[in-house]
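[retry 2/3] M28 family peptidase: previous attempt timed out, resubmitting with same input.
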Amino acid sequence: MKKTSLIWTILWIGLLGRQSLFASPLTFQNSSHFSEENMKKSLAWYTLNPHPMGSENQTKVAQTLELTLKKLGWKTTKQKFNTLVPNVDSEKFNGDHKNEKATKTINGYNIIGTLSGKEHCSLIIGGHYDTKYFKNFRFVGANDGGSSTIFMLELARLLKKEKFKAGTLGSCSISLVFFDGEEAFLPNWEEGKFLLGIQDNLYGSREFVNKYIHKKNNVYYFENRPINLTIILDMIGHKEQSLMITDGSNDVYSEAFIKSTKNTQIKKTWLSMEDDHIPFKELNLPFLHIIDWTNISEWHTAKDTEEIISFKNLADFGKTFLNFLSHKRLENGK
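[retry 2/3] M28 family peptidase: success.
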């Protein structure tokens, strides 16, 4: 091979390699209702590889989320943040790198999509899209991370079509927030605090609240609109789905959500949990935290795969969700 040909070949291979690093938006069938097929395709994308915060795979997932929201017509923001995390490669945590420090700084990305509403209020709907780090097995988080992520993408597609009456929750500006770094890097939720003096969880939601939520005259705002309600979703797609609205969730909105149900099993519970709603709760903002904490035999195991997901259950939950957004809005969540 001539030298010039070799150079062009190397350049071409390099270009192909660079192209493979760039993400593409997901595509959807243009259904008038929650599409099981759309969510099935999205979950196949989500579970292709494990993607903890800070990994190359997670960066690609973030890019895809951003591009997909833009393609669907949402105003999109990528919030990049740097954060200190446990270094699971260090010897302290039985890692392979003896000289590594016990902590390291990595990048995280919250992906925010906003659809402007007709009225002066804001509704935040969030869920985490990272998968928990496990060294000894492949964890793709079909339910824990995946179910809320694919649901929110399908919700984004349908909300562009919905027309909500004045005075309803849906008439507010709606922001879908895909949080990075909900999961702890260490095996247990509190280990980071005890071993390193750092909070090893809720990285993205804490960063989002610190940067974007502002207080004026005792009212909290996001993008210059008062926040009426925050809804946090997690682990909502199990084939034996039994959803809970956890303790601390706004009572009036909880009852309204339950009354909105369409073939979805959901109830208010005394169970108190730590999830991405906590940074909002600490500001005394009204919230709903919805999770399935009944079907947890596959939770944080290699069995959290597409086989445990019911796309019909997710579609039914979508009908309930849209019904709820048609509910009369409370002023200041009261």
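[retry 2/3] M28 family peptidase: The two ends are 76 Å apart (CA to CA).
[retry 2/3] clearing retry counter.
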